[in-house]
Amino acid sequence: MTQACGVDFGTSNSTVGWHRAGQPALLALENSNTTLPSVVFFNAEDDKISYGRAALANYLAGYEGRMMRSMKSLLGTSLMDGQTEVLGRALPFRALLGQFISELKRRAEASAGRSFERAVLGRPVHFIDDNPQADQLAENTLREIALDAGFREVAFQFEPIAAAFEYESHINREELVLIADIGGGTSDFSLVRLGPDRAGRPDRRDDILGNAGVHLGGTDFDKYLSLSSVMPLLGLGSRLKNNGEMPSSHYFNLATWHTINLAYIPRAERELQDLQRDALEPEKLAVLLKLIRDRAGHWLALRVEEGKILLSDTATAELDLPRMSPSQKLVLERERFNSAIGPLTESVESTVRGLLRDADLGSQSVDTVFFTGGSSGVPLLRERIAAVVPNARRVEGDLFGSIGAGLALDAARRFG
Ligand SMILES: Nc1ncnc2c1ncn2[C@@H]1O[C@H](COP(=O)(O)OP(=O)(O)OP(=O)(O)O)[C@@H](O)[C@H]1O
Ligand SMILES: [Mg+2]
User: What pLDDT band is residue 114 in, cutting at 50, 70 and 90?
Assistant: First the structure.
């Protein structure tokens, strides 16, 4: 039986796969769920840490504590060496991330009924854009964390290549495939020749025609949606009595998943109190201060994310925002969302075009575009990517499971 597992540590969701012939690869990680949301909640009242859906529930239940989501986005940044503080106690981000990876391993082993000493970890094509040093630092940090968590040997694989291996296990003819993995933090692409005869080859380098990626994903869509429709309700874009503009940094922190906790530091609150005195619309700042004092930043981000997901299916979505004020409602519109994420969509599209160009392949030659990752559910994005390869058949994988299952296959091939 295969000795190694595949670990997809995602910005939003994580999975662990273990390859066994004739059985589904993904292991149950939280009750019967094969995904563990990449969330840690440190409960300061009882000093306990919870993970995944339970962490979200504990935070939303209002326990005093610290919530972390989108921890993967810290890798390779200077924030990684920082910490968050709760009740005067410092919680280093690196330790929180380590706790999460250890928990992922522990749960996978409990589910499999055995231990895993070796693992193939997924990684985006770029953790950090246009900065090879920071990108290498991100991979090194993740490797150290995985080794500290108890893996003896760790290898890395590009997430879209893992998805390609998974897709390949279901096809019975040769295809040139564009893999599009649009996740919470990054959009990753691979151009690969896949087929049943190629699957067993020990060296696939000739089949991989190129990889490309950009550090943009669902958490950025949440941020842009928040900045365009929710943050103005809290004073973003409003004016000060001296006719100056309200500084935007507090709003950016609050709208960005991995910096929400920065909005809670005492200095930020004092600055906002000063701004409230100078504001032409102080009532908006009052609501902002209330949210910050209530530590409701993640609640707000979750509501925005829910709205975004609804917009994948409907033209408008109504959000209740009772923690802002009991009767506060907000109607989100898909058209406005599409405009807000327009520049992001263009950047993703040009990443795909660049990949085809670098591989010296005409857009007509791609047989299949394979979509995976939760954010491939955003209709505008999917259309724009599909339009780059007009002849390609569209295939949708398991949006939250293809990578983990593909990493399991890769782990079996590499480690036996
Ligand atoms: N139906 C949907 N429409 C749009 N976005 C969606 C939908 N369902 C989930 N999402 C978004 O997908 C993202 C999570 O996708 P996924 O689990 O693939 O990411 P991840 O693997 O954790 O991230 P990454 O691979 O970038 O590290 C979240 O931003 C979530 O809001
Ligand atoms: Mg992913």
Answer: very high
- N residues, the chain: 416
What are the backbone angles phi and psi of residue 253, rounded to the nearest 5°? -60, -45
Out of 309, 334, 337, 381, give the residue to mutate to test ligand 1, the one with the largest number of ligand atoms within 8 Å of its CB. 309
pLDDT given at position 1: 66
Cβ(193)–Cβ(223) below 8 Å: no
Residue 172 burial (CB count, 10 A) = 6
> What number of CA atoms fall less than 13 Å from residue 354's CA on the CB side?
12
Q: How far is the CA of 109 from the centre of ligand 2 (A)?
A: 21
Q: What's the chain's Rg over C-alpha atoms?
A: 22
Q: Pick from 216, 338, 371, 375 the residue to mutate for probing ligand 1's pocket: most ligand atoms within 8 Å of its CB.
A: 375
Centre of ligand 2 to C-alpha 46, Å, is 32
What is the rounded distance in angstroms from the CA atom of residue 244 to the CA atom of residue 278? 10
Written as six digits, the tokens of 41 are 């909640």
What is the maximum alpha-carbon separation in the chain? 71
Q: Are 368 and 393 in contact (CB under 8 A)?
A: yes
Give the residue carrying structure tokens 């003896």: 152
Residues 190, 211 contacting (CB under 8 angstroms): yes
CA of 214 to the centre of ligand 1 (A): 15
Residue with tokens 């049943």: 196
Q: Is 199 helix (H, G, I), strand (E, B) or coil?
A: helix
Cα 372 to middle of ligand 1, angstroms: 9
Tell me what pLDDT residue 200 has: 85
With 90 as the cut, is the pLDDT of residue 275 above it? Answer: yes
In eight-state DSSP terms, residue 36 is E
- Whether 25 shows a pLDDT value over 70: the answer reads yes
Report residues whose beta carbon is within 6 angstroms of any ligand 1 atom. Answer: 10-13, 72, 159, 183-186, 217-219, 305, 308-309, 312, 373-375, 377-378, 400
Nearest ligand to the CA of 403 is 2
- Say if residue 9 is exposed, middle or buried (CB neighbours under 10 Å; 0-12, 13-18, 19+): buried
pLDDT over 80 (residue 272): yes
In angstroms, rounded to a whole number, what is the distance separating the alpha carbons of residues 71 and 165?
27
Question: Which residues lie near ion ligand 2 (Cβ < 5 Å)?
Answer: 10, 183
- C-alpha 261 to ligand 2 mean position (Å): 23
